[in-house]
Amino acid sequence: MTPSDHAAARLLDASANRAREGLRTLEDVARFVLDDAALCTAIKRIRHDLSGSVAALPLAPGLLLSARDTPGDVGTGVSTSRERSRQDLAAVASAAAKRTGEALRSIEEVSKTLGGDSAAFEALRYRVYDTERTLLVRLGREAPQWRLCVLITASLCETLPWERVARLAIEGGADCLQLREKDLPDRELLARASTLVEIARASGAHAIINDRPDIALLSAADGVHLGQGDLEPGEARRVLGAGSIVGVSTSCIGDARRAVEGGASYCGLGPMFPSTTKPKPGLAGPDYARAYLDDPVTRDTPHLAISGVGAVNVGQLASIGVRGVAVSSEVCAARAPDEACRAILGALGD
Question: Could you say which of 139, 172, 202 is where a domain stops?
Answer without folding.
Answer: 139
